[in-house]
Amino acid sequence: MTDRELAAAGEVLLFDPAFLNPRYDGTLWVCASPEDVYAQGINAVCFLPGRGPEDLKRCRPFLNQFDCLFVAVAEEKARKALAGELRSAALGKPVWVPPGQSFRGCASLAELKSRHGTEALESLPMDAVELPAYGLIDLSDVDVEEGGRRAVAVSGISTLDGAIGGFGEGELSVWTGRRGEGKSTLLSQLLLEAIDQGERVFAYSGELPKKLFKRWTLVQAAGSANLTALTDPVTGRTDYAVDAMKRRRIDEWWRGRYFLYDLEIASAHDEGSVLSMMDYANLRYGCKVFLVDNAMTMRFRQGSDSDYYRAQSAFVGRLSEFAKRHSCHVHLVAHPRKSEGKALAADDVGGSGDIVNRADNAFAIERLPEAAAEQSGYTARLSILKNRQFGARKTVGLTFLEDCRRFSGLDGVLGQKHYGWENGECVQQIVELPPDGNDPWETSHEST
Ligand SMILES: Nc1ncnc2c1ncn2[C@@H]1O[C@H](COP(=O)(O)OP(=O)(O)OP(=O)(O)O)[C@@H](O)[C@H]1O
Questions:
Q1: Which residue, 11, 91, 99, 356, has most beta carbons within 10 Å?
Q2: Residue 448: its pLDDT value, please?
Q3: Which residue's alpha carbon is nearest to atom 14 within ligand 1?
């Protein structure tokens, strides 16, 4: 052992260099106190005051002389704690721990030696068990459910679902597209689909005030057959509204299932705030489908512009970890780098290029120019840019219904779909008839 190695170790550990000889025995005894170091004698150390297992990284060359670490601590709680810390410090050394009974009721190595002799000390390693290495697992111990990957929800667009197998547990989907091409609209529809499939959802919608968000979502949930056309007498422009009775039924349907992140709180766009609210929504309400719309409205931890893309990429990494940790599906909207020119590709997403690397799926959505729409028979196009699970690459034609803001596959099913609120999945309402005696289901058209 060199003087340099000993000097580095001497900043973390207390030991007697004269009693260190890894060639004699490759086991380094990590003791609780200088008395125990002295009692053991050969190859024994303890931590200097204020030092701990994390500091051992500073003296790796010293540690590398030994084959394994032996937790020579009599007191049970302290022994378990030290063993855990040594293991998680990822020092690349096996950690051996003796069972409590090996200490024969003694509070220290020194006491064990004085009461039961040197042999009692020497036999300690014989009963020890090796802790599994931190970060390295035996594949046979990995528990997987029968049936493989599980989709948290499907889109309802049969061609898309057939290609990607639905939106999987623990996965992150990135959605891109130029401004106003329909990303938010399609994603809000996907959340409704998830609710209809029995899931609870969370939405961070960085650009839409809550009333507008709700109005648009209501129209989608209602569907064409339940909308009232309101034409502005001045401009002639027609907008669509859901009457108060139906609004109430829809509210009952998604109550407790649809959680919207409130943009009015002070830290609204801070990534930490959004992520912790997502945690909360999962743990408290069981939300499984998350929408983060969009990356550009988020305020990342690093402030400077030069760090922006790195911070955005790190945020995408955190979203991916979140999805895995909670077995959820996260949808993230990320704008493309360039806004003009040819069809969008995976490399165009975000600014750093590696957003798509971190995602499990990437999709681009675009509106078709009128002529192309007429020729193809559909008005929008959804392209699968990446699909980790099946490697699917596909372009799916969609039609857009302007009144109810719904996208539908070419089969038209989603445009006509009746969500749960129409199928009795809501609380029965008791309604007082208005004095004029008219049917309240037909007459009430106030806007939200
Ligand atoms: N294919 C389409 N045809 C006609 N109108 C559409 C289509 N897609 C979306 N719209 C309408 O365009 C407007 C903008 O859509 P949306 O907010 O979903 O776009 P976006 O891609 O999320 O935009 P941004 O990037 O600005 O957030 C909405 O009023 C929506 O109803």
A1: 356
A2: 43
A3: 180
| 328 CB-side CA count, 13 A | 27
Distance 385 CA to ligand 1 centre (A): 20
How far, in Å, from the CA of 315 to the mean position of ligand 1?
25
How far apart are the CA of 408 and the centre of ligand 1, in A?
14
Query: What pTM, to 2 d.p., does this model score?
Result: 0.75
What are the pLDDT digits (tens) for 242-300? 999 999 999 999 999 999 999 888 788 999 999 999 999 999 999 999 999 999 999 98
Domains, the chain, in order of start with CATH, read: 3-130 (3.40.1360.10), 151-443 (3.40.50.300)
Cα 193 to Cα 190: distance, rounded to the nearest angstrom: 5
pLDDT tens digits for 48-107?
999 999 999 999 999 999 999 999 999 999 999 999 999 888 788 899 999 999 999 999
| Residues 266, 264: Cα–Cα separation, whole Å | 6
- Nearest atom of ligand 1 to the alpha carbon of 335: 25
- In this structure, the residues whose C-beta lies within 6 A of any atom of ligand 1 are 177, 179-185, 207, 367, 379-380, 400, 405
11 and 35 in contact (C-beta within 8 Å)? no
Mark out the alpha helices in 223-382 (DSSP H runs).
244-254, 271-285, 308-326, 355-358, 370-376
DSSP state of 199: -
Q: Whose CA is nearest to atom 20 of ligand 1?
A: 180
Facing residues of 72 across strands?
A: 31
